[in-house]
Write a structure and sequence with these properties.
mainly alpha
């Protein structure tokens, strides 16, 4: 048996597809942040930076700085749903920097924004008195369905996401399995 290669082949089109998937997911929860903090443009700017890359602009420092700014915006808000919305937008911008290193930690660049969206669905279900587990399962299925080719193939180039010790890691692992199963 041979060891897995340390290097993963990634084209610019692969990176754009991953960033597009993350941005499509994050756009679902941006309104939660903007409702809580309407005067803070940082998460929207991060989403715009991700979209610029997916639409053909060069990958640049714009994505990195916008991702960091959105994550800082998240740290400044107390509402968990709003915080997750800002983090997801930052994750979308950061997805442009998926590394070609065959490590499970890289799966976060592909799936972290989606996992945050699934967590928001779960929290909203709890607030509404609905079944949080069912809401999370439905969100995972819906978000996995957004992973258009070549995203599943790109994900399969990496080791599976670890199950983790916290809810976001569990949702990432569930998304990982669901997206890998797609064609």
């Amino acid at each position: 048996m041979t060891a897995a290669p340390d290097h993963v082949e990634l084209s610019t089109d692969d990176l754009r597809a991953v960033a597009r998937y993350a941005a499509d997911c994050a756009s679902q929860v941006l309104p939660a942040f903007e409702a809580a903090v309407p005067d803070d443009p940082r998460p929207r700017e991060a989403l715009a930076a991700a979209r610029a890359f997916t639409d053909g602009a060069a990958r640049s420092n714009r994505q990195r700085t916008a991702a960091v700014a959105a994550h800082r915006a998240a740290a400044a808000v107390d509402d968990e749903v709003a915080r997750l919305g800002a983090l997801a937008c930052g994750d979308a911008a950061a997805a442009a920097y998926l590394h070609p290193i065959a490590r499970a930690t890289q799966v976060g660049h592909i799936l972290r924004a989606a996992a945050r969206v699934a967590r928001v669905a779960e929290l909203r279900a709890v607030a509404a008195g609905d079944d949080a587990g069912r809401a999370a399962d439905e969100a995972v299925a819906t978000l996995a369905g957004l992973a258009a080719p070549p995203v599943p193939a790109v994900l399969r180039r990496y080791p599976p996401a670890p199950a983790g010790r916290h809810r976001l890691a569990e949702l990432t692992s569930a998304l990982d399995a669901a997206v890998r199963a797609r064609n």
